Amino acid sequence: MTIRTYIQAMAEKVLSGGTIDASEALKLSGVSGSDRFLLFAEAARIRDHFVGSAVFLCSIINAKSGRCAENCAFCAQSAHHDTGVMVYPLVDEDEMVRCAALAEENGAGCYGIVTSGTSINKSDELDRVCRTVSRIKSETGISPSCSLGILDEETALRLKNAGMETYHHNIETARSFFPQICTTHDYEDDVATIRAAKAVGLRVCCGGIFGLGESFAQRIEMAETLRELDVDSIPLNFLNPVAGTRLENADNLTPLECLTIISVYRFVLPGKRLSVCGGREKNLRELQSWMFLAGANGTMTGNYLTTPGRPPELDRQMMKDLEIPVEGCCGVDN
Ligand code: SF4
CATH number of 21-328: 3.40.640.10, 3.20.20.70, 3.40.50.2300, 3.30.565.10? Predict the structure, then answer.
């Protein structure tokens, strides 16, 4: 069987309701030359079949920045790194609501309140986030989500009762690679957070970041973990190295490799929302619009946590040029 016939056979398997395993996904990841374009096209066909061709937009606010006790190797906000990142406490309610309204104006359907740190302070900070979520629900038409670090079911329920619809928490990378990226908390703490959010009936947005030095087999391992966790949407971030972090010199992704990751994720996770988030401008460069031709159905518009995004009007123009409809939602790194 040629590789082209193999790509088509795997696509037919997924389209007929089958699941591809890690070795099959790994074989797909090895395509090269013009065979890659067939992989992208088949991933887009799978996307259209399971979730349609509409693209979802989300936006975030970095609501509390810096001084995080965790040591995630890629993160500008870790207190273990000297990056010069802005440090500020939880921003006030009015500012968070104002930014939600602006995100809505820019076409986003989901707005994430993101805070640095292992987890949120359960008294005054959580109270303020809950009040803000309620106001966003009543004062705007955008769907509120939160990314507040590790949380338990009790906190998840408080946020849900305030009106939060989606909880975002990334597992970042494969379980087998995680100890090389973070040693201050355990992979299972992140998994438990996903389970807590799901247990109270929240929608879950959970993905990771590529370009940390992981192998393609480990990228597929993460995809399989996400499939087991049955998360709803998956943010795919690509490392934008920040000076002062442990990975400041890691710069090893190419645009075509990023697109291959997107496509292989679509084969493994056919019915999920795959949203390309942090690092897309740097890593996809002139091929940004190809993310939708390779199987993605979402992206983040506006700025990321510590790095600027491009003007939202450029994203709107990209959708217009592609003639794909825009709907609304979430996740992020960088
Ligand atoms: S990724 Fe999150 S948990 Fe890790 S250092 Fe950055 S802010 Fe802290």
Answer: 3.20.20.70
User: Does the beta carbon of 116 lie inside 6 Å of ligand 1?
Assistant: yes
| Pairing of the two strands 326-328 and 273-276 | unpaired
pLDDT digits 0-9 by tens, 80-101 = 998 988 999 999 999 999 999 9
Ligand 1 close to Cβ of residue 70 (< 6 A): yes
Measure the CA angle with vertex 87, ends 85 and 90; round to 5°.
135
Length of the chain: 334
Would the CB of 172 count as within 6 Å of ligand 1?
no
- pLDDT tens-digit profile of 212-246? 999 999 999 999 999 999 999 999 999 999 999 99
Q: How far is ligand 1, taken at its centre, from the CA of residue 7, in Å? A: 37
Distance 128 CA to ligand 1 centre (A): 21
